[in-house]
Write a structure and sequence with these properties.
By secondary structure, this protein is an alpha+beta fold. It has helices at about 1-20, 30-35, 80-90, 100-105, 120-135, 145-155, 155-180, 190-200, 265-285, 290-305, and strands spanning about 25, 45-50, 75, 95, 110-115, 140-145, 205-210, 215, 235-240, 245, 250, 255-260, 315, 325-330, 340-345, 345-350, 355, 360-365, 370, 380. It binds zinc ion (2 copies).
Length: about 375
């Protein structure tokens, strides 16, 4: 696995060189995981732009407990994670210190050191500025945004395989739940959600990818409804939005069912959202902007008179986080590239009556969007 992380570090190094930054202080834990494989709760990475890594050599013997100057790419964690980090990050010099951002900045090479503005608290920034000023070899702190996040938007093979497994767990859990008659009048939203979560765990999910949404009847008109003691009733829409986390990767899928025979209005908005979701998937081509893909789906809904009832973006990247780059939404300048993994999830919500959302997770390939969530999108009548 370490060569994989090294390849990722190379990609980010190229971005640092392009931005004229000598080193990046990575403090976002998800980004640290992406670049090193470390899964603990406290760590940081100083990534030097010039490739200073030795070929295929373990550095376990270079552990230090002080932060003496050693301006190299280095991983830092605290004493709770000495053993875990030796296993997970055998290929980088390691610093055991606390706080890691301070220790790594003290040891950083002279020049410009980028920090991750989205994840660094203001108090930590103030401390780092004080350290930068007191250093004898000058460092200037540089604001960066999304350097690692942009690299993460394009998935490598290992990541896509993890997402495939996460989507397969969600598909299977839903099929089993339906097969066991788990979505039926008389059950509460909460009971359905708990059973779905339990089934995902039994099928190998580390966790649900986020708090499972089960929304019945009028609640289905609330895009992010939390499951309650509300009881499912005949004639209801039941909307389930859920996913599994596998190897740290998150799947995301929404399906909407009807309990019994659908009424005319239910069929109408279901068919509309179904068509809009297909249009969104077809627009997910390499080179398209997030704005254009959103419009391809949204325009269909607006033309049918339901524009105001679709009040959220069309989709988002999925990966180590449930919501990450790129964004498929109005005004999004994100440009689709091969191996980006994104959701496509239009919806129409009629307050007081009910709503429909249909969502897939999938991969953008040179020949179009490949759906990873395989559950049928035909109107499911339970
Ligand atoms: Zn979702
Ligand atoms: Zn989503």
């Amino acid at each position: 696995m370490t060569s994989l992380h090294r390849t990722r570090r190379s990609t980010v190094r190229a971005a640092l060189v392009a931005a004229g930054i000598d080193a990046l202080l990575v403090t976002d834990l998800i980004n640290v995981r992406y670049l090193t494989g470390f899964t603990g709760s406290n760590a940081a990475l100083l990534l030097v732009a010039a490739d200073d890594e030795e070929p295929e050599q373990a550095h376990g013997h270079t552990d230090r407990t002080t932060d003496e100057p050693d301006p190299r790419t280095r991983f830092c964690t605290d004493g709770r994670y000495t053993l875990q980090s030796q296993e997970q990050v055998p290929d980088l010099p390691r610093l055991i210190a606390r706080p890691c951002d301070v220790a790594l900045l003290r040891a950083a090479p002279a020049g410009s050191v980028g920090f991750e503005a989205r994840s660094l608290p203001v108090a930590a920034y103030d401390t780092l500025q004080a350290i930068a000023r007191e250093r004898t070899r000058p460092v200037s702190l540089r604001t960066t945004l999304d350097v690692v996040e942009d690299a993460r938007a394009v998935k490598d093979r290992t990541e896509i395989e993890a997402l495939e497994r996460a989507c397969a767990v969600a598909d299977r859990a839903l099929a089993d739940l339906i097969g066991a008659g788990g979505i039926r009048p008389g059950r509460t939203e909460r009971a359905v959600g708990l059973e779905l979560d339990q089934r995902m765990r039994e099928l190998g999910a580390e966790d649900p990818a986020f708090e499972t949404i089960v929304a019945a009847g009028a609640n289905s008109a609330v895009p992010h409804h939390r499951p309650t003691a509300a009881v499912l009733a005949a004639g209801d829409f039941v909307k389930l939005d859920f996913g599994a986390t596998v190897d740290g990767y998150h799947s995301d899928m929404t399906r909407t069912f009807v309990l019994g025979e659908p009424a005319g209005w239910q069929r109408e908005i279901y068919d509309l959202v179904h068509a809009a979701q297909a249009a969104g998937r077809q627009a997910c081509v390499v080179g398209a902007t997030g704005d254009a893909i959103d419009a391809a789906s949204r325009d269909l809904i607006a033309a049918a008179g339901y524009g105001p009832q679709f009040a959220h973006g069309l989709g988002h990247g999925v990966g180590l986080q449930i919501h990450e780059a790129p964004s498929l939404a109005r005004g999004s300048a994100s440009i689709m590239a091969p191996d980006m993994c994104v959701t496509v999830e239009p919806g129409v919500y009629l307050p007081g009556r009910g709503g429909v959302r249909i969502e897939d997770s999938g991969v953008i390939r040179p020949d179009g969007y490949h759906v990873l969530t395989q559950t049928s999108k035909d109107l499911g009548v339970l």
